Amino acid sequence: MKSIDPQSLSVKENYKFLTGSIIPRPIAFVSTLSETGVLNAAPFSYFNALTADPPLIAISIGRRDGVQKDTSRNAAALGQFVVHIPDETYIEAVNQTAANLGPEESEVELANLTAVESVKVKVPGIAEAKIRMECVIEQIIPLGGTPDKPATDLLIGRVVHYHIAEDIYSQGRIDAKRLRPVGRLAGTNYAKIGDAYSLTRPE
């Protein structure tokens, strides 16, 4: 067993260990609306659920040299965003939205994705997604880096509306096999759902 002190590593080396170890990671495909009306969309794999009471989710969105990305800035300004769960049917389009575009350009248009009106927020969703969650900002917490240049923004969102495709929904549950979600590994690698099995929790 190799023993390593993270303080002896560079940021890049720590990143490689974290992203190579914490796998597969769920991906949040997040749409936001800029103050000038540009529909932004980008994927983030530092993402998970926090609690069901109320339904809260968290997304860590890294900064560039302390500067917020469009997603964080837009979400903070409007107080709203939409999270989609990427699946095998449109993951290549999601990957295209990771391109480094200016704030005046729409990744949704670049990837030829279809915007669809939301019910409770102003931010449009993406029609290709089998699951989308309309969210409002609960908290935004700058983390890491230095006080002047935080390394990331932790977006905590409260889900105010779900959209779930009929073919993956049954009796209040979601069929993971039909959803066919895609998870993130290290580097440029992704993962599909493999063999699933059940374990009974001890009493």
Automatic annotation (TrEMBL):
Upper classification of the organism: Bacteria, Bacillati, Bacillota, Bacilli, Bacillales
Pfam families on file: Flavin_Reduct
Flavin reductase like domain location: 20-176
Keyword Isomerase found: no
Keywords: Flavoprotein, FMN
SMART domains reported in the protein's UniProt record: Flavin_Reduct (SM00903)
Family label: Belongs to the flavoredoxin family.
SUPFAM superfamilies on file: FMN-binding split barrel
This protein's record includes keyword Flavoprotein: yes
Highest taxon in the source lineage: Bacteria
Record PANTHER family: FLAVIN REDUCTASE LIKE DOMAIN-CONTAINING PROTEIN, FLAVOPROTEIN OXYGENASE
InterPro entries named among the record's database cross-references: Flavin_Rdtase-like_dom (IPR002563), Split_barrel_FMN-bd (IPR012349)
Required co-factors: FMN
Protein name (record): Flavin reductase family protein
